[in-house]
Design brief:
Elements: E1 14-21, H1 31-48, E2 51-57, E3 61-68, H2 77-105, H3 109-120, H4 126-145, E4 157-161, H5 165-176, H6 178-181, H7 195-200, H8 204-214, H9 219-229, E5 235-238, E6 241-244, H10 246-253, E7 257-258, E8 266-268, H11 269-273, E9 276-278, H12 280-289, E10 303-309, E11 312-316, E12 325-327
Parallel strand pairs: 4-9, 7-10
Antiparallel strand pairs: 1-3, 1-4, 2-3, 5-6, 8-12, 9-11, 10-11
Length: about 325
């Protein structure tokens, strides 16, 4: 039996870093398919009432950082109908409303409430969101390529992220720099299947995500600061090619400190596999909440990351012993 998906709690908004890979990590997605994935993702987010803070769709995997309302938050009928329409369209929504009116005349109020609750249970739920996104895209992809079978490698990964600017910024920038880390672009704003590119082009939803991450209402200030933080400082020209600067490399080998922009040079497993990430207080609190899931031998929660990012010390639940940090070779 699979262990239950860990959530921050049922009465509080939660921030989650969600990751999933294509089977065999093969590079299958072309530009049209990445755009289709975005459309499915955005529709499901609207239906689920989930805010996408930033994301990136790569050729063989994706990252999405979301803010999710409490599971037990009340959803009135007006909101339910609006969200249903965003996913299923006007015709199906009118059919649903018509059916409920007929049921009401027949005094089938219990049946109406049951069906509404079934719909509501799919909202404010990261498991439902990811299931619908991955299954919806799989159907599209398999039909397009005349194939059958699974498209995704395994159960999606999720990391609960502390809702603080410094923690959110690290997770978000790490996500938006995937395209740079892969050597596809030098400026993350030019990779169109990402939150930073959409925000920079003026997409309102993406801008709202950056505003939330940067904890400000000033759009120009948030964009300027966020984009500046993604600038790469650890690269130098060597024989006409970009390579890691000696300073950046030595800093990481010594596990001391790296700048935000240098996250493009390293794959840091704990950011995507740390279970919880944030301050020691936050991680310890989450550990105590889910202590029974980690065995009787585990006495404490927070594990200190062996380096700082922009001078910020983070903690995670898991201390990765195998390749916690990997240097990414940059293309010319």
């Amino acid at each position: 039996m699979r262990p239950p998906r860990l959530i921050i709690n049922e009465e509080q908004f939660g921030i989650y870093h969600l990751i999933s890979r294509i089977v065999d990590s093969s590079f299958r997605l072309d530009d049209i398919e990445k755009t289709t994935f975005e459309n499915i993702m955005n529709k499901q987010a609207l239906f689920c009432g989930i805010s996408i803070l930033t994301y990136i769709v790569m050729g063989n995997h994706f990252h999405i950082i979301v803010r999710v309302p409490p599971l037990n938050a009340k959803i009135n009928i007006k909101t339910l109908i609006f969200r249903y329409r965003t996913l299923y369209g006007t015709d199906k929504t009118l059919e649903l409303i018509k059916k409920w009116k007929i049921w009401k005349k027949k005094e089938m109020n219990k049946e109406i409430i049951e069906e509404q609750n079934i719909i509501k249970r799919r909202m404010h739920n990261i498991s439902s969101f990811m299931k619908e996104v991955k299954q919806g895209f799989s159907k599209y992809y398999n039909k397009r390529h005349l194939r059958k079978g699974t498209l995704w490698e395994e159960r999606f990964k999720s990391v609960i992220v502390e809702d603080k600017k410094e923690v959110l910024t690290i997770s978000a920038i790490y996500t938006d720099l995937n395209s740079v880390r892969a050597g596809i672009v030098k400026d993350p704003r030019t990779y169109q299947w990402s939150g930073i590119a959409k925000a920079y082009s003026g997409n309102q939803t993406a801008l709202e995500g950056i505003l939330y991450i940067m904890k400000t209402n000033n759009t120009s200030q948030a964009l300027q600061e966020y984009c500046a933080l993604t600038a790469r400082k650890g690269l130098i020209k060597k024989n006409g090619k970009l390579s890691l600067s000696e300073t950046t490399y030595k800093n990481m080998i010594a596990y001391s400190n790296i700048d935000y922009g240098d996250l493009s040079d390293f794959s840091i497993g704990v950011i995507t596999r740390g279970c919880f990430i944030g301050s020691t207080t936050f991680v310890d609190r989450m550990f105590l909440k889910y202590k029974n899931f980690f065995g009787s031998k585990r006495k404490s929660g927070a594990r200190k990351l062996p380096f700082k990012i922009n001078g910020i010390q983070l903690y995670a639940l898991r201390q990765l012993r195998k390749e916690p940090v990997t240097v990414v070779k940059q293309s010319s």
